[in-house]
Write a structure and sequence with these properties.
Layout: E1 7-8, E2 14-15, H1 17-31, H2 33-39, H3 44-53, H4 56-65, H5 74-98, H6 103-110, H7 113-125, H8 131-154, H9 156-186, H10 188-209, H11 222-242, H12 248-255, H13 257-270, H14 276-293
Helix pairs in contact: 1-11, 1-13, 2-11, 3-5, 3-10, 3-11, 4-10, 5-6, 5-9, 5-10, 6-9, 6-13, 7-9, 7-14, 8-9, 8-14, 9-10, 12-14
């Protein structure tokens, strides 16, 4: 790597201009996901199905090129199937929530898995939180309370949408637990491929069970195709390329571009105005997401 464009910090992280561009670009690509879910006329769970199914050939190619020497044994296969099940419920719940609440809320709550994992780690370790961890939990609870209260003021539908997105954050956390173990042995692309193969049939069953339209209608294939490429290939690819070059704090701060972009799209396209109290709630939840990422390893970003 060119010394003029990259230099290691005191912790050994080395990032150049391309890595910074990829980190921001990956988050921007993922931030457009909620907008594309709304543009699709398939139904939210069906959009999640196409999001995973359409890029499978590209994911297979990327997994083959970045293949690990580790074999896919029964234990790893079961881990990927378990991760895929939680990933399916994560996307289904999140996409349903996107249809019912503000885009900024959906993006923040959908990424709440980082905070949930931090709390899970404290419970599993049976220890009291550090000052930083306690601050993150309090900030998350306070910010969520503000945003949920504001949604309830708008309508019961918006409040329900927030709850779906919070449930997605919980499923996201349980997705990460087996996925991170499998990723360390198989590599990120192989795990994403196997998870998508496990999750997409389950999403199709859920979509059919709820009576959603599965095949795109008047809006055509463009929204679901762009959703699949931007979320599963471009966004994930840029982040796979960049994440290992940055400390968790910087990654957490870059993650906050997602709700910022979602809030901007919500305002410009859907007229979703944010009052000062909304912004305060977003800042608190955003701060909690950053604090939750500092102590441990970073998992998948949406």
């Amino acid at each position: 790597m060119d010394r003029a464009t990259a230099s290691p910090d005191k912790n050994g992280f080395q990032a150049g201009a391309w890595h910074y561009a990829a980190l921001i670009g990956g988050n921007l690509a993922l931030a457009l996901g909620p907008w594309l879910v709304r543009l699709a006329d398939t139904g939210p769970v069906s959009a999640a199905f196409w999001r995973l199914l359409l890029p499978l050939p590209l994911l297979a190619l990327l997994a083959w090129r970045g293949r690990s020497v580790g074999p896919l044994d029964r234990k790893l296969a079961l881990l990927c199937m378990l991760a895929g099940t939680f990933f399916a419920f994560d996307l289904a719940s999140w996409h349903i929530g996107i249809e019912r609440t503000r885009l900024a809320n959906a993006t923040l709550f959908g990424n709440a898995g980082a905070v949930i994992l931090m709390v899970w780690g404290l419970v599993a370790a049976r220890r009291a939180p550090t000052g930083q961890e306690a601050t993150g939990v309090v900030a998350a609870l306070a910010g969520a309370a503000i945003l949920l209260g504001r949604s309830l003021e708008i309508s019961a539908t918006t409040f329900l949408g927030d709850l779906f997105c919070l449930a997605a954050g919980l499923f996201y956390a349980f997705y990460l637990l087996p996925a991170q173990r499998a990723r360390s042995m198989l590599g990120p692309w192989a795990v994403l491929l196997l998870v998508s193969l496990a999750a997409s049939p389950l999403l199709l069953v859920l979509a059919l069970a709820t009576g959603e339209p599965v095949w795109p209608g008047a809006a055509g294939w463009a929204p679901v195709l762009v959703l699949a490429l931007s979320s599963q290939v471009v966004g994930q690819g840029l982040l796979v390329f960049s994440l290992r070059h940055f400390p968790p704090l910087l990654i957490g701060m870059a993650l906050l571009t997602q709700p910022a972009v979602a809030a901007l799209v919500g305002w410009l396209v859907f007229g979703e105005l944010l009052l000062p109290l909304d912004i305060l709630g977003m800042v608190l939840v955003g701060a909690a997401l950053v604090l939750a990422r500092v102590p441990g390893k970073v998992g998948r970003v949406r």
